[in-house]
Amino acid sequence: MSKPILIDTDAGVDDALALILAFRSPELSVKAITTVAGNVDVKKCTRNVYRLLDLLQVKHRPIIAEGARRPLRAPLLTASEVHGPDGLGGVSAKLPPVRNVKPENAVETILRLCRRYGKRLSIVTIGPLTNVALALKSDRRTVLRAGRIVSMGGAFRVPGNTGPVAEFNYFVDPDAAHAVLTSGVPVTVIPLDVTHQVVVMRSEMEYRARRRASDVARTILDITKDYMLYHRETQGFNGGYLHDPLAVGVAIDPGLVRTRRVHVDVEADGTYTRGMTVADFRNRTPRSLPAVEVALNVDRDRFLRLFHDRLWM
Ligand code: BDR
Ligand code: CA
Predict the structure, then answer these.
(1) Domain coordinates of the chain in residue numbers?
(2) pTM higher than 0.90 for the full model?
(3) Relative to the alpha carbon of 170, which ligand is closest?
(4) 67 lines ligand 1 (CB under 6 A)
(5) What is the C-alpha to C-alpha distance for residues 142 and 239, in angstroms, rounded to an integer?
(6) Which CATH superfamily is domain 3-311 in?
């Protein structure tokens, strides 16, 4: 039986790959997609979700809901230099125009699904955690009914990607990240420690897209082009990290990563350390305080096999 999931996304380039992976995975049943400001503003994120569902010709449409326009406290920082001005590598104008954009409300949708599916529900967050934090604020007991949150974010034993110590999603809304990671909901954190180990090279994308030669394959190539050029300029390889697809991969197959259970705080006020994930690997934190599972190792080859098998179906 497929697992009901809700995906909370800031609908950038790797988010798009994550959504394609989710819709092409029979182990999952995507019941809702909620959008949040992050890579680009939330209205663009919502439109991108509609665009991707059209592209994939999804028959049983999930609920689409729009969420927070800005982080809880910090001003919004976007990443359009990585994901393009539209969030989809600057190519959305080439895609068919979206019609009937009538999203529901993200916080209400999160709460509704927690009530409906309880422990069976996984929430996969691939953007800042603002929506989930707002849902917790509005009705904590209901969110505690969810089975698990798989959250892409954080950097534990590796440098950050938004400043020296912070990862983008948790940097954008550190208050929300802190609220969710210390809420007591079962959370699996998918940090840069593991997402930097899953890389796809441009040459491989081109090779696979040529063999597949479908509209979806061509669009995947278009969307990822500038994302990969950005990595070539800043990281020295012509390819891209699969941050968000790995979070979906873990929802499909939790055994893809090895985790450590640890108490994690997220620095929200630090002058130099905003968004930093502070983990007590010494295990001195009282057991009464909530802990989360932090992924520190990934079975890279198994994940990449899964990713490519599904992406180029
Ligand atoms: C995360 O930041 C975003 O730009 C990506 O979509 C991913 O969710 C990686 O740090
Ligand atoms: Ca994202």
Answers:
(1) 3-311
(2) yes
(3) 1
(4) no
(5) 40
(6) Ribonucleoside hydrolase-like (3.90.245.10)
